[in-house]
Specification:
Helix content: 40-55%
Strand content: 15-25%
Number of strands: 7
Strand order of the largest sheet: 3-2-1-4-5-7-6
Shape: globular
Radius of gyration: 17 Å
Structural class: alpha/beta
Number of helices: 9
Length: 240
Amino acid sequence: MSKYGLPRSEVPSAFDQDATSYDRLVGANPGYHDHLAKSAERLRLPGLGDGLVLLDIGCGTGASTAALLAAAPHAQIIAADASSEMLEVARSKKWPSNVTFVHSRVEDLAANGVDGPFDAILAAYLIRNVADPDKELASLLSLLKPGSSIAFHEYSVRDSLRTRAVWTSVCWAIIIPLGYVVTRDITLYKHLWRSVASFDGVKAFSRRMQRAGFTSLDTETMTGWQNGVAHTFLGARPNG
């Protein structure tokens, strides 16, 4: 494993290995579900989602899907993930008929029948786990309807010594030891630590979004220990 974490081609299999214990682990993270809900709410989807078609890319075991569904209960939601085992856990839960799950990497969405256009996209903990972030940002932009918004829910700590220290402390004091207790393996959780530590700072990722063509850029953080650590990065596809 490099300082950037796992090779990105190996990330889905790492999530496969820990899929059955993943909900228990994230459930121990204060604010995890509330913060996903906040990112979904920040999309400001109108009318409970009536008539909207939404994409939840990198849905994992469905926590982000549930957040999007709460924000827009009447929308059609397509939720996709590269990990077949995480997706199996998601599918095992109770969902209304307007939620559909698709096994696909973000790189292969079109090949798996996910081609939009979408009224909004939620991408949680996704973009630092792809091999070519710039390419995938451009791809996600193309999936949006003109004027529609995307929310990237992501950890970003490189702009601040304090948040880097908080992130490393939480990983080595809680996340990695707890991952070992539950799974007897720390591969995924060391990847989490390293992939976040090496990911863009807030300003750098905002500039990356701008280079990809997103407009109406905005960034908002979370509460609790994740203040300054977890963020919603908002952007839109330009009209016209």
